[in-house]
Every structure is written in C-alpha cells, then in structure tokens.
TrEMBL record:
Keywords: NAD
Keyword NAD appears in the UniProt entry: yes
Pfam family, one: GFO_IDH_MocA
Origin superkingdom: Bacteria
InterPro entries in the cross-refs: Gfo/Idh/MocA-like_OxRdtase_N, Gfo/Idh/MocA_Oxidoreductases, GFO_IDH_MocA-like_dom, NAD(P)-bd_dom_sf
Domain Gfo/Idh/MocA-like oxidoreductase N-terminal: 2-118
Name the record gives this protein: Gfo/Idh/MocA family protein
C-alpha cells in the first residue's frame, strides 16, 4: 500500500515512522502548504513532497492517505480522496458537524473505499491494559468513570487555527474532549444518552479553554470529564470505579488496579508507547483496507462528534441534552437506561 500524508503537523512523523516498520506499507508522498515542513517528514523515507493535496491525489502515487489537517478540512479532503478511489485514515475528530460525517461516509461507500477515523486511545498500551482487565470480569461491572485531562489553550501556545471556530469547530472540547469522550464511552461500554456541560473562556481566547461534561451512558454508567488549561502539573488520568475495585490509566505511568486495599500495576508505560500506538493504528487501517473490521467503527466516531456538538449546546443553554437513543421520538431517558 502506497501511503500519503496530508498535513505534516505534530503527529505526521508518528504515522511516517509506523509506515517504515510495517510490511506492505510504503510512505510515497507528503503534502503540506509549506514545502519545507513537508520535506522534514518525507525526506527520511524518500517520499515525494506536494503543497497541494489535490495534485498529490491526482498524481497516482498513493493508494491511501492519512488526513492530518485542521478539523473543518476533513470533509473536503475525504471527498476528494474518495473521488480518486483512495482509502482514508482521517484524524479525530471525524468532522465538525454530523452532516459532514454522514457525507464523508456516503462518499466512501459510493467509491468503494475504506475510511477509518484515527481515535488513538484504542491503541495506547495503558488503555489496552485497562480494557483487558475490565473484560476479565475480576472487577465486576463498571459503575462510574472520572476522566481528567489538562491541556494548554493559551493563544500563544497553539497555532492560530485552533482559535478560529470556523476552522477548528471549537476549542478544548472538540480537540482534547474528543479523546476523553472516545475513551470514556468505549471503556464505559455503551453509547451516551444524556450530556450536561459547562465551559470557561480564559486567556482572552475566542473558544473554550476549560470545561466539564457529565454524561449518562445507555447502561447507566456515570461519566464525568474535566478538561483544565495550563495546570501546574500535566494530568491525563482515567479512573474507573467498578463493583469490586478501581482502576486507573495514565500514559505517563501506566495502569493500576486497586482491590480491597491492594494495588497492582498491570501496565508500565514507556517512551515508546505513543509510537507503538500509531504503528498499531496504521496496521489496523491497512488490515481494514484488506477487508478486516477496524477496531473503531464509524458509528462510534460519529457518536463522539455528536457528543461534542451536544456539549456545546448544553454549555450554551445551561441544560442537559439528550443524545443517541434518548433523543429519538417516543424514547425516554428512563427507557434508554
């Protein structure tokens, strides 16, 4: 599979390194508006450099692409790839509206190409260990999840497009919150039926910099997500409360289980975990192109976007918002649970 990367930003090198070690995948092209930025990712692997993704798609040099660009550009790029019969791994969030998500899916179905959304949490070692432990049944049913993650949404700390709602779709919720929503509903074991959210705009930023989301899943699991900007110490921890104990996952340290006062570490994080995750995600994408079922399906990816949009509505209105099954006519929240 000849692979191209559109957008040579921060994680592009992780995709390139993954392609370099996987049999049957060759990085053949990198596109970025700045040729020098694209060249830094392309040159170690002898890949061609483009500054116009349309020219790259039309050049006949790729069979699949990774779309690693600002959020609102995903739709037009996926549609263009599909029109050329090119498979797509599109970074999260899938898009900035549900309508765009549907249009992307429909275009790929018509073109008979595979589209997978890059939700990297499913491939992180500490989250894999967390999921495996829950699946073992030792901790019993999941009852509650607290997901706390710090970020930095000071305008000087990020490229300008992150603060342009027309391009980014929002602030900390659609960017960092998409990761938290993804992993919380995955680990919680069911889609969400209700979300209540609040946001803060600090540092003079035109988008939200901080916020909280309180979510009820279809199976009754309660989820609380906290995203805080510019904290004294970086935080990225999931705490899962179960019938027989608790479990935490943190990419800096690992995964820990506590049962009746005894703590056991079941995964120790390493500096290679992030690269391993991107390599595994690319391998999963290549398998999907060959006909396998991807680890993360399109319905889940769309649900993450749905929840981000509902969180914005809730934060603006000050009231909870029903989503998914609870939002369907004739179905109450009690019925959904």
């Amino acid at each position: 599979m000849r692979l191209g990367i559109i957008g040579a930003g921060a994680v592009a090198v992780l995709h390139a390194e993954g392609a370099a070690v996987l049999d049957g995948i060759e990085l053949t092209a990198v596109c970025d508006l700045r040729a020098d930025v694209g060249a830094r990712v392309a040159e170690p692997w002898g890949a061609a450099v483009f500054t116009d993704y349309r020219q790259m798609l039309a050049a006949g040099v790729v069979d699949a692409v990774v779309i690693n660009t600002p959020h609102s550009l995903h739709k037009e790029m996926v549609l263009a790839a599909a029109a050329h019969g090119i498979h797509v791994l599109v970074e999260k969030p899938m898009a900035t509206t549900l309508a765009d998500c549907v249009a992307m899916e429909e275009a790929c179905v018509r073109a008979n190409v595979v589209m997978v959304v890059g939700l990297i949490q499913h491939f992180m070692g500490e989250k894999i260990a967390l999921s495996a432990e829950l699946c073992s049944g030792r901790l019993g049913k999941v009852l509650m999840i607290h997901d706390y993650r710090s970020t930095d949404y000071r305008p000087a700390a990020r490229p300008a497009w992150f603060f342009d709602r027309a391009i980014s779709g929002g602030g900390a919720f659609i960017n960092i919150g998409a990761h938290c929503l993804d992993r919380s509903i995955w680990i919680g074991g069911a889609p969400a039926v209700r979300i209540a959210a609040s946001t803060l705009n600090r540092f003079g930023a035109p988008v939200e910099t901080d916020g909280t989301m309180e979510i009820v899943l279809e199976n009754g699991v309660q989820v609380r997500i906290s995203i805080v900007s510019d904290t004294p110490h970086h935080v990225d921890e999931m705490l899962v409360v179960c019938e027989n104990g608790t479990i935490t996952a943190d990419p800096r340290s690992g995964t820990f289980v506590e049962i009746d006062g005894t703590c056991t570490q079941i995964h120790e994080s390493s500096e290679q975990d992030i690269q391993h995750a991107f390599t595994a995600q690319l391998k999963d994408f290549a398998a999907a192109v060959d006909g396998a079922v991807p680890s993360v399906d399109g319905e889940h990816a769309k649900h993450v976007v749905e929840l981000v949009m509902a969180a914005y509505v809730s934060a603006q209105s000050g009231v909870p918002v029903d989503v998914g099954i609870a939002a369907r006519p004739g179905v109450s929240l009690q019925d959904a649970q």
